[in-house]
Amino acid sequence: MRGRARGPSPLPAAAGRAWRTLGAAFVLLVFVPPLLLLVSGSLTEPGLPPPPTPQLVPEPVSTTGYQQAVELGGLLRASLNSVLVAVVAVPLSVLVASLAGFALTRIAPRATGVVVAASLVALMVPATALLVPRFAIFRALGLTDTLVPLIAPALLGTSPLYVLVYHLAFRALPSDLYDACLVADLSPLRTWWRVALPLVRPVTAGLTALTFVLTWSNFLDPLVYVYDRDLFTLPLALRSLSVLDPTNFPVFLAGAVLATVPALAVFVLAQRRFLHHDDPTGRD
After folding, report:
1. Is the pTM here over 0.85, yes or no?
2. Mind listing the pLDDT tens digit for each residue in 251-272?
3. What is the 3-state secondary structure (H, E, C) of the chain?
């Protein structure tokens, strides 16, 4: 009697789901309690002395801190500035990084090795070591006290790490796929846009979320380049709330909640691609 053909073992998939579940549980255990305390602290009535111990449900519950945070810190204008920077810088950074990573898979292996080695060396350079030369360049160009210095790094892919991640993702695609694109007479640009980039959607989702969070929470660059209060981004506006007296700590915590919500929303939207996905083609 002929044995019945068996499909792939379900054990690897089950193990993957188990690891993802453990990872999600760890993230919840580490990050949810501080977030709950942050929200509860923001709902405390401003003007009262801080409680001796953290309270999960403050008494009385008040939203006055949110109103004062928007009025005193100028969070509305600062949020619009941060959104403007993120809307321009995040897509531009992802596009440039993906183009550079794809280009590394199309050039000679020796040249690729040189570029990868140079990128690794660049990753070891502290960001603070580049502040002075970057400031001198932007000042000579007359671009200080504008939002341009906050967006300009996206023209270089923001970080060499993004280029290397895309390079590894594109290199993992089957070589027969690229050969088929050559047979179909697709140009390198069309191959990148129509074939390679859609197949690494989980990588794009992860890097987009990471770039957004780093751009949204960037404090050092606005502090160095922006002086006009009307151009303050959200981290700089929160800094103005941090100098309030201790009885007004709910105002600062309310501002922190408002600044945290967009980053959490982006991760919730992106996690479907880079956490709960096994198919490298990006299909469910």
Report:
1. no
2. 888 888 888 888 888 887 877 6
3. CCCCCCCCCCHHHHHHHHHHHHHHHHHHHHHHHHHHHHHHHHCECCCCCCCCCCCCCCCCECCHHHHHHHHHHCHHHHHHHHHHHHHHHHHHHHHHHHHHHHHHHHCCHHHHHHHHHHHHHHHCCCHHHHHHHHHHHHHHCCCCCCCHHHHHHHHHCCCHHHHHHHHHHHHCCCHHHHHHHHHCCCCHHHHHHHHHHHHCHHHHHHHHHHHHHHHHCCCHHHHHHCCCHHHCCHHHHHHHHCCCCHHHHHHHHHHHHHHHHHHHHHHHHHHHHHCCCCCCCCCC
